Amino acid sequence: MLDMRVSALSTILALSLLAIGCGADEPGAYETGLQDYTQDGRMGAPGAYAQTPPPQQSQSGVVTLYDHGMQMARGQITVPSGWRVNQDIATDPNTGRFMRFVYDIVGPNGELVRNLPIYTYQSMMGQQFEPMWRDAVMRALHGALEGVQIGALQTSAVMQRVPTVQQAMQAQNAQPLEAPLQASRGGQPYAGRVYVVNMPFPADPSSGVFVPGLIVAPPDRLEAAIQANLQMALSARPNPQFEQAYAAIDRRVRQQMQRDHQQRMARNQAAFDAHQRRMAGNQAAFDAHQQRMAGNQAAFDAQNRQWLENFRGSGGSGASPGGGYTTNDQFNDYIRDTDTFYDPDSGQNVQLDGYYDRTFTDGLGNFYRTDDPSFDPNSMQGNWNEVQPLQPQ
């Protein structure tokens, strides 16, 4: 549903220059107004008005526009002598949207005023005002005229003269626009005007609603048709009872939309709360894992400290005295990157840095290490013998 102010203006404009109606129809919803027309004022498509009374035209030229969905008059307009109104308008009383919309005013000399319903365009859906209004007009002229060419939109001085359009400009920042039209029918040239009331949404000017309509006539009758349509627009008289009935529908639908919105928000909140609980559970599990890891690390650190204390308690040699060699000594060699040898001169174990392929001692507390497989210990002074690192027993 549209904003209430737009809806009220829609009902009024429906009886003036352009027929807006009471609900936002999706593009393409307008189908029944595409039939051909003839100069006697009746639509050429068979069965187009099977559910609609003949066009109404009183002796005084006052025509009542009737809504078959709402089962009441929408209002009245005064038409010139010789003009006819073809109408088949039905608004869904449950939704306020059009079920059918045909509203043509046909002149005695080939003139046609064709009014169209309201259209919505939303930038978030990839919809743009310019291509949508052109598409709506081309659909409305399908089968009625050939070779249709439409110029660029510009501000419409004619539409600005209509009080209801002026009200829309003040209340909704409406833009009254028009564009020239050229076409042919049966080989004869036709000219026209396309009128568009564009009402961008304040929160998103690239989205909004627009109401298109058009006037076509033989070129020499166009200006007179424009003036005749302007007088009909100024004569429009909406039905207050219809406005009240539609306002009630609008309130009911908006209330239902609000309830639906609240239910969606409640479901979203419930899903968000469940997500938060899952995240809290995951965080608790992660914290417990971190605590376990911290405990394991503390135990490992305590074991390392014990090893270091054992090492320091051994007299600083890093190995057991007197040639003894334990698995704890082997672990100390591993973490220190050392080898342990027995020194016969002191009777103690000695730790030497690094790993070498061969180690020699002279039995006097001196050691020599090398990776050279051809090294000859006899080349050194003294009695040098090769020894091997101690192993646990």
Walkthrough of the structure:
With 393 residues, the chain is of the alpha+beta class. The chain has 2 domains: 4-238, no CATH class; 327-387, no CATH class. It is built from 6 helices and 17 strands. Strands 3, 4, 5, 6, 7, 8, 9, 10 and 11 form a 9-stranded antiparallel sheet that branches. The protein has a 3-stranded antiparallel sheet with strand order 1-2-12. Strand 9 and strand 10 form a beta hairpin. Helix 1 (4-13) runs antiparallel to helix 3 (163-172) and helix 1 runs antiparallel to helix 5 (240-313). The chain is rod-shaped. 32% of the residues are buried. Residues 1-60 have low confidence and may be disordered.
Secondary-structure blueprint of this entry?
Blueprint: H1 4-13, E1 62-67, E2 72-78, E3 84-91, E4 98-106, E5 112-115, E6 119-121, H2 129-140, E7 146-150, E8 154-155, H3 163-172, E9 175-185, E10 188-201, E11 204-217, H4 222-234, E12 237-238, H5 240-313, H6 327-336, E13 338-343, E14 348-353, E15 358-361, E16 367-370, E17 385-387
Antiparallel strand pairs: 1-2, 2-12, 3-4, 4-5, 5-11, 6-11, 7-9, 8-9, 9-10, 10-11, 13-14, 15-16, 15-17
Helix pairs in contact: 1-3, 1-5
Summarize this structure as a short list of keywords or feature phrases:
2 domains, single chain, nine-stranded antiparallel beta sheet, three-stranded antiparallel beta sheet, 17 strands, 393 residues, disordered N terminus, rod-shaped, alpha+beta
